[in-house]
User: Fold this.
Amino acid sequence: MSISVLDALRPARKPALLGLVAVFGLLIGAWVHGKYFSDRSPVQPIEFSHKVHAADNEIPCQHCHIYADTTPVAGVPSVSKCIGCHKSLPSVRDQPEILKLMAFWENREPIPWIKVHDVPDFVHFTHKRHVKADLECQECHGPVETMDRITRVATMRMPWCVECHTEKNVEHGRDCWTCHK
Amino acid sequence: MKWGNDLSTFVEKFRQYLKPGYYDEFDYHWTMTIDLDRCTGCEACVVACQAENNLPIVGEKRYAQNREIKWIRIERYWEGEYPDVKMGFIPMLCQHCDAAPCEIACPVFATYHNQDGLNTQIYNRCIGTRTCAVYCPYEVRYFNWFTYTWDEPLEQQLNPDVTVREKGVMEKCTFCIQRIRLAKDNAKDDDRRRVRDGEVVPACVQSCPTEAMAFGDSNDPEAKVSKMMKDPRGYTVLEELNTTPSIVYLKKAHAES
Amino acid sequence: MSKISRRDLLQYIGAGGIGAVGGVLYSESIERDVELLIPQVVPPEDYSPGIATWYNTVCNQCSAGCGISVRIREGKAKKIEGNPVHPVSQGRLCARGQSGLNVLYNPDRIREPLTNAGQRGTGNFYPISWDEVLTTIGSRIGRLKIENNASRVRLLTGRVRGHLDELFAQFMGLLGSDHYQQYDFTYPSALKAANKISFGIDQLPYYDIKNADLLLSFGADYLGTWISPVHHSLAYGHMRQGRAGRRGKTVQVEPRMSLSGAAADEWVAARPGTEGLLALGIAHILVSDGHYNGSDRDQWSDVLQAYSPSAVSAETDISEGNIRQLAREFGTSKAALAIAGGATTAGTNAVASAVAVNALNHLAGNLGQPGGIIFNSDQAFSATPGTRQAGMQGILDLVEAMEAGEVDVLLVHDSNPIFSLPDGVGFRQALDKVPLIVALSSFRDETTEQADLILPTNTYLESWGDDVPDPGVGFPVASISQPVVTTLYDTLPVGDIMLSLVRQIGGELPMAMPWRTMEEFVKERWREEYEKRGSADQDFEAFWQAALEAGVWGQPGVMTGDQIVPSGASTIAAITNPASQFAGSETDYPLVLHPYLSASLLDGRGANLPWLQELPDPLTSVVYGSWAELNPATAEDLGIREGDVLEVETPAGSVSVPALIFPALRPGVVAMPIGQGHTAYGRYARNRGANPMDLVSMQIDDRSGDLAWAATRARVRNTGERLQIIKTDGVTRTLGRQILGPKNDHA
Assistant:
């Protein structure tokens, strides 16, 4: 009788296979989560549609994100900014989402938007420089004008930043301290 | 394309490894001069740095264990005995050496020389071997032995332009790189290619009540630092080590009598 | 290939499913927390996110009155720097000034009005509403006023200038009490008294260090703690290296090397208390060697007769040759200036010493000259800063009145006599006789702890006000103080509290003081001054906006004009033999106690700021805590090593502190920094180190009424215990490394 290692391992074959399947499942689960459940596309307190505003009504980005070309922060529009237009738009006044907006305004409460595009605190990022370098908003934020609910299309992680800096041959674009602080 | 980039990065790194500070020419060469004849050792710069760069309040216990973090400190040296005793002050901060011993030491390239002649430290990359601190002859590198906290609401003062460091990373003077960045940003807004002399003022230089410190681009012969560096009193600390520091001290003058 | 049984298939599916759920859960668990993006409801007009704005105001960390710029981002104060257009600070700022952020964001600030509920001194306080507390105080004071007993109301403040001072004065004046006084330990009362004698002007003049060639400082740590350190430092830098080919020289006379002593070319450790005598010795030579040739030379010669170099040398322990050399340099310098401060003006001979130093300035002929003493002939608002500084005598009068039961209500603002005065004054005990003590304060310091009611004040970074620097800079200047952040807690600016009290008390007060807020009051006064001085081609509102933006208004042109040059007669008449009388006999107490103001904590007001606690002392590098310095020779004689816990004992009391061997200290002197030893004042200050004021004997200089805090003898005893002194210094010798520069010349 020959002694085989494989034979010795035979009783472990099934648990190992089961484990393999479980790991496979784990990966699928993580992928599914990333695709459908992650913060890339969170449900916002008001179902605000960029498609309606930016595409259907052709409002330029910086009409609302007014600080994008002058400060590091693009700026989310103030509630008063929303009301500025919507108070004279009777056609949509009775829609449920607009009623929510009006409620915020009447209570003088800010809208707790959920952040979709975020970089960690140790990153120095300035919208101004990117806008002034004639980058389209869509290059980082994706085709927002086609989105009803905002979805993050880029990873917003370092390799993604560096890749673009390299491609565009940004001056000192790959020096660590250009983006780290 | 991508592979080519990585390869060239690697070659670059290798050259850097063989010859630290290999840039033949810096874009800017940020340099500081400190006139010891003006310096009174008042330590305004120390607090200015603490405020600007989010240096932690380490507490009495940690201080007693030599865990203090002060990117700029005043060193004191006594000469002579009573009654002919003299005190010499010298502000000591990262010298941003062009041939920096710390840069050779780091196993993960967390500290390197950038195109502006700055010796920089990348906190995210640092794994805390502390080798650089051992290699530094000026002893100006400080290690975060703890994650420090601020008693509420002191944290409201923290400068949003500077990272708050955590346990396990090395840190040191950056020549207030956030101010350099701001000045470059302003220059770009004005369509200037270069930053003007005097536009970048690190916190310590800004605060100095006797105007002992000057800061600027020594590549620009017209800059104030370039002129100060030519002063016959000028010297660099521990010159014999050939670290070629970016800080030039002007030694204290003596009274004529 | 073997068949998979149904049972196995289900197992595989189960494993896969569990894995998938696990994957989702795991991913979920490592998700970053949701960050919110909170918009503003209505954005402020000049708001730009991520961009800093600077607001100019006035520093309140010492009495210099530096203009400061505060960096604000998203409504939070981030950094304080000097205001570049302010003539005092000129864009620079000292460590204490920059630590103002620790005042604003201090965790130990008083956040709401407090009452002790009738249990004084227990340290227990309970919240109370503003309405209630103001009504209580208002009705109490109102009743005293109606009963014509308003003089039973006393107001004690720290250094207060500008229109807050006027507001306090008006308030007390309208009540009918003339008992408004200030007490600031660091105020140079003796110097001011001496200047009044010598120059007939009741103000601090401007000492033009910038243009001097020789600065002879008697005890004045002008770079660290004396009067206006930032301005003096700027001047010092210019004097040293700002003039091509002309490097000014400085000489420092003091028993313990201060920051200014370290910077000086010569450090002269005269016997403590004899500094004024040394000045007279120099004056003697100036006259006898013909460096002074004024018409009153003979009078000078007569009065200085007794102070021959040999006599002075014996008293001061400075060699005759050294005195002669100092005199020669002083006499031949183009612009020689002498100043007095610190321990020199804190003996029982304080005024006499300062007069002696004034004599040197007279003889150097520097009055009204560049590089000399410049009088502020025209102050903004015709201000007379410092006139309400009561000095020690004022405090003693107050204590006496309290002991006699003549005080019903004591209002204390920003003054901490319990900490900064010796116990011998009896301030703390006298408070027991006062039925109502009200503290207007941002912090619970020792004096505030004794209060019945605490009215929490805004810090200076949250308040309106203005300031006239003292001393002026030679021309009229006024600074505006404005809030740079919104008020953090349920606190009020001190001016607004006083105006609220005005309305509570009623009577004719609200008519005479109709302003709702301090801002209104300040603006009205500025309008009046503007109409008096301003140009016609700008209306006031535009001027006001410009002044707010600049933080300061001044008229540099006015500087020169007619400088009063007083005759020497009054100085001559005032010259007496200045020898300080020390408490304690030399046999019982062989050492001299030399307390000095801490460069970082000053008189202790900075002890609650963590940045200052962590700032190494400039000369010893010690942080957190106090120590007693001994000369190496003295220490060796006594068998004391660094870290030995000493019991320092004087006729007034004793404290235990670790010993520090300090090379630049006269043998026979024990030096201790003032500033630590708080029993209250928040987590960073409390129970740390010792307060040398506990050692100071109650002696006053009878000519100024000021506390002679440097006139006590002491002895030390080694307790045998050891304590680690926390300091940053390691090796303090260069060991030939040429760290301070190559020794190729002047070796």
Summary: Residues 633 and 667 of chain C are 7 Å apart (CA to CA). The longest strand of chain C covers residues 712-722.
